[in-house]
Design a protein that fits this description.
mainly alpha, 10 helices, elongated
Length: 291
Amino acid sequence: MSTSNSAAPRTLGPGMVFAALFALVQRVPANLLRWILVLVRRPRARPPRWGTGAIAAIVFVIAVIIASMFFFDTVAIDWARREPLWLNAIADRVTNLGRSNTFLYPFGIVLLVVAAAMAPTLPRMAQGVLAMLAVRFGFLFVAIGLPSLFATVIKRLIGRARPYVGGHDDPFKYIPFVWKPEYASMPSGHATTAAAAAIAIGAVWPRLRPVMWLYVLIIMLSRILIFVHHPSDVLGGALVGVVGALLVQRWFASRRLGFSASDLRAYPWPSWRRLKAAARQVATGPTVSAS
């Protein structure tokens, strides 16, 4: 008596595993390109105009930055030079948390995973959940990455000397377009990243706003304590980060991506039940399709 081959459990051979992995790799650039095209599509709604209070706040911060150059920058750096060594050591460690890769790496990895998982063979519910995740983490990545990139370029065009250049602090020493790290003080890139992250993460997870703004203040202070930036530099960086992230949020909202165009509030996250169901469908869907 013989046993039918159809009754035997099917095992994945090396060829099928390779084909599945190749399909994953192919989906990543295709989905990323598709998401970029959605992001640059024509606006579908008009977000609210900037309020008078927001414009007044921006003007006020600019005035404080200018005043700091004249009255506070040198005083703050002189104080930082006399700080205890233990305080400088702590600030030197903490300040690394203000690098853009602190946020861009994890958010970028999530985007790549979602891009690999998104497949036309998945059920509509799973595709919808993955699309929501792509929009949210795409917003976080762009809202933090673009202001940080802008600050990286503009600070080298402005060419303001860092406090340690020349052995003494001169807040009015500039060499524009020199493109050297020693003349890349205004605005602070770490402060830009921190403030942009506070706006972006606070927009997606409002409960984290107090924690994020405490983080911003710590990063800004650390840049002064290790005397690589003036107070006006970190204020300028924070302003660039805030305005840049808000502009990205309005860009997404005008295309109905993640945010309501009427009040700029984030759309609700998928429920845990939907997330778990989508994860199960992602785990089984491509395998069924490949077989």
